[in-house]
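Progress report, Aim 2. The chain analyzed during this reporting quarter is listed below.
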Amino acid sequence: VQLVESGGGSVQAGGSLRLSCAASGFTVRGTFMAWFRQAPGKGLETVSSLYSVGINAYYADSVKGRFTISRDNAKNTVYLQMNSLKSEDTALYYCVRGRVPDYWGQGTQVTVS
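Predicted structure tokens for the chain:
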């Protein structure tokens, strides 16, 4: 099992980024997937999660209306579209598998200035 994130970078406040999480060794379809983040000096925060079609995605209050989680089953990839970015979104973002995460990606840095 492997999760590989990409798409992070530096952006000005108000900008957008799309994070990708390419999965291998299992199928994301029907699998609980989530994005976590850790800002400097802070603990881990669940940003968003997605399970199955028909079950509403979860979003942290701090990102509701700005972030969208999605999944492309054909590409076995999970995405996090981040719009209207704020400085407080600056963090290392991780893609994880499972409600109790058993696999983590290496993380991708998002810096908003």
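The two ends are 34 Å apart (CA to CA). The chain has no helices and eleven strands. These observations will guide the mutagenesis work planned for the next reporting period.
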